[in-house]
Request: fold
Amino acid sequence: MKHCIKTLTLISIILSLFSCSVHKINPNPVIKLEVQPLDSIYIYYNEKSSLFRIGNEFIERTIFLDKKANRIYTTTFLNKSTQHNYINSLGEEFSFRINGTQISGITGNVIYKSHQIFSQVDAKGLELSFDVKLENIGTFSIRLLYEVYDHIPVIRKWIEIENKTGSSIAVDSVLMESIRLLPGIDFDIDIRDLSEYLRNKKFRGLSTVVFNTNLKEGFIIGNETPGILKYNDVYSKPGKIGIGMTQQGGQYVPQIQITPKEIFSSPGAFVFLFTGEPEQSKDRFEEFMFDYLLVNQSQKNSIQFENINPDINEAILIEKVKQTKNSGIDIFCISGNWTDRRGDWTYEKNPYIKNIAEYTHSLGMKFGLCIDLSVAETESIILDQHSQWTVKLKNGSDYEISDNKTKLMCLGSEYALYMAYEIDAIVKELNLDYIKLTGEILPIADKGGCFAVNHLHKTSLESLWYIYDGLFAIMKYLHVHNPNLIIDIDLDSYNPSGLIDYALLMNANINWQ
Reply:
């Protein structure tokens, strides 16, 4: 039986069923193509010492398999420019819980099975496979995957968990990285925000910079987990670095249900080393972003948003478009109540929308729309015909948005497929150049997620994971079918903190510059 990958589930469904083209975006850092070894990138295995070495001219990570004790450690994380090893003591390597039982590289039950080394044009990957057998659960497999790139001082990592048992297992509190990483001594360490060194200061909270102010070196950590589900630990214990998903006891803890023969693939994590002041490595870090993470390198566009209200008509909008053109703005975007009913996404009451789109294009500008992605009005046809797609509260009732006129639809249901189709149709009908996804997407914290029993998520505890999955599925579908479409999102809709993260940069057209 063919395995099912439990990551970006909706994306797989959408792209396999509805797309004949292959998109260049690679949301997961997976390398599966054998070629000749590369000069500047290497992965070596010494079977006698049970050591793997992975690196390039700037960075090297040494991984030790303790086959007698069934453990795995990173023993060296070397900044080759300074020859300093940042591993100050042995850590867990990774960590997660299966049905409440803690599993890590040091729990003594991680049995090494095999390894594979993969290559592509400018990267190499290492896959380490292990079996774990628990008396009350059965046997499941873990694969640790590492990736190193040509001429870039970064190592990227993620985890796959395969359920070989006869029943579902629940995974939570995943840490893709759990190591003891310290560039020098505590006294010299300064913790900073990456946005201090970027050209665009809106990326506050994107990454943490650990900088030794005396030695003038350090590292940047990156977490590719989406939105409110991410967790970073920087020295909660001496030297400990943890990169992963929210941990047990936190506010948002996704508990992923993995059915028999299914595989869960975690988000990625990375550690980027630098020498000198952090800003000296800005260009090389941005090279890594452009080549391996960003969905594209779109030009920065200025945007004029025009809100539709009962007092607006076609003549007024035509004049607004002219003013926008004269101001040198790139995109004219309509927001507000332009649709007949949110959820149905028709505009029969405002038929001039098409004329405005055509007129905007005739002046050489781009045209866009704001779309409340997960909002449906109570009188909409979609809500009448598919009320099962709403976010459900614990008592089984629909999640009503505060205005009492709309309900929140669950992107962890088939509603995501519906919206992918609907938006694609609008894009083609109006020749849209730009869309901005707005409105509520996530249930607020005290609601506890979506409790529906007929959605793609099996429990409320994994619903937020699937909601983000559905959001990215829609973006990927639209990118495949409309390669030049600019997809933006209201940051407060994506993450209540309003912060941009790597998961979003890998899917939406957020301008890096």
About this structure: Residues 463-481 form the longest helix (19 residues).
